[in-house]
Specification:
Radius of gyration: 23 Å
Organism: Runella salmonicolor
Strand order of the largest sheet: 7-6-5-10-8-11-9
Number of strands: 11
Keywords: Methyltransferase, Transferase
Shape: elongated
Distance between the termini: 85 Å
Strand content: 15-25%
Protein name: 23S rRNA (Guanosine(2251)-2'-O)-methyltransferase RlmB
CATH topology of the largest domain: Alpha/beta knot
Structural class: alpha/beta
Order of helices and strands: HEHEHEHEHEHEHEHEEEHEH
InterPro entries: Alpha/beta_knot_MTases (IPR029028), Ribosomal_eL30-like_sf (IPR029064), rRNA_MeTrfase_TrmH (IPR004441), SpoU_MeTrfase (IPR001537), SpoU_subst-bd (IPR013123), tRNA_m1G_MTases_N (IPR029026)
Oligomer: single chain
CATH superfamily of the largest domain: SPOUT methyltransferase, trefoil knot domain
Number of helices: 10
Pfam families: SpoU_methylase (PF00588), SpoU_sub_bind (PF08032)
């Protein structure tokens, strides 16, 4: 096709929408009544997002009672997650069933074992979480403790990255990690925060007693409040010029040291 001088074909404007991840849809419950029924049935739900211009009073009330985080978002966000008839509400279903920390700790003591727990403070990357769970299960950690809010969603990606470890390793979800630290200390468990600001190095610490290790956020590490509340702060000694490690790598190193000491005790 020829064009006269100064005549050019008009550019077409193409509107694109972020593609829906089909695998994610298997981990969702959406629509007002299905979400209500999931809440009534006690299904494990990581969080609920709702259209910010609707009330959803029944759902909000049940979510508050169970301590499930609720986020108000624009309609575009909901449509990016699923294009099906979500009616303005989507619940993210956990791939595992959480367990009670009280029951786990009591069971460990009843079996005559020495507790080794791993507490994750605001670790949000799903693959980091899965990798940490894999190392923890391999090294004999009894359970992972995560906060109710600000933690990675335990979905199929987490299960896959853990190489199935999350099918064997209990995960406890707690409302307040500060209260959890106090509970553990009252139960005779030493709480150790891993932070690059610590003076003590991990090889100088006794991990053969009941222990809970705290690993912190990918962005800013263990929160200052938890560092102050812990019995001890430790760091991984490093020789290179890079000042920090990926949290899943750091967790693996600390857990290994704890397991190494405990294996020596057995021998």
């Amino acid at each position: 096709m020829a064009f006269e001088r100064n005549e050019y074909p008009k550019k077409r404007t193409i509107h694109t929408t972020k593609p829906v991840d089909k695998t994610r849809e298997k981990e969702l419950v959406f629509g007002t009544q299905p979400v209500i029924e999931a809440l009534k049935a006690g299904q494990e739900i990581d969080k609920i997002i709702v259209f910010r211009e609707q009330s959803f009073a029944d759902i909000l009330e049940m979510a508050i009672e169970r301590g499930i985080p609720v986020q108000r978002v624009p309609m575009e966000k909901l449509n990016q997650i699923t294009r099906k008839n979500h009616q303005g509400v989507i619940a993210f279903v956990s791939a595992i069933r959480y367990v009670s920390l009280h029951n786990i700790l009591a069971g460990i003591f009843e079996k005559g074992e020495v507790p080794l727990l791993l507490m994750l403070d605001r670790i949000t990357d799903v693959r980091n979480f899965g990798a940490i769970a894999r190392s923890a299960e391999c090294m004999g950690v009894h359970a992972i403790v995560v906060p109710m809010r600000g933690a990675a969603q335990i979905n199929s990606d987490a299960i896959k990255t853990s190489s199935g470890a999350l099918s064997h390793l209990p995960v406890c979800r707690e409302n307040n990690l500060m209260d959890t630290v106090q509970y553990l200390q009252d139960s005779g468990v030493q709480v150790i925060a891993c932070t690059e600001k610590a003076a003590q190095i991990l090889t100088n610490v006794d991990f053969t007693t009941p222990t809970a290790i705290i690993m912190g956020s990918e962005e800013d590490g263990v929160s200052p409040e938890l560092i102050r509340r812990s019995n001890m702060n430790i760091k991984i000694p490093m020789k290179g010029k890079v000042a920090s490690l990926n949290v899943s790598v750091a967790a693996g190193m600390v857990i290994y040291e704890a397991a190494r000491q405990r294996m020596q005790e057995i021998v």
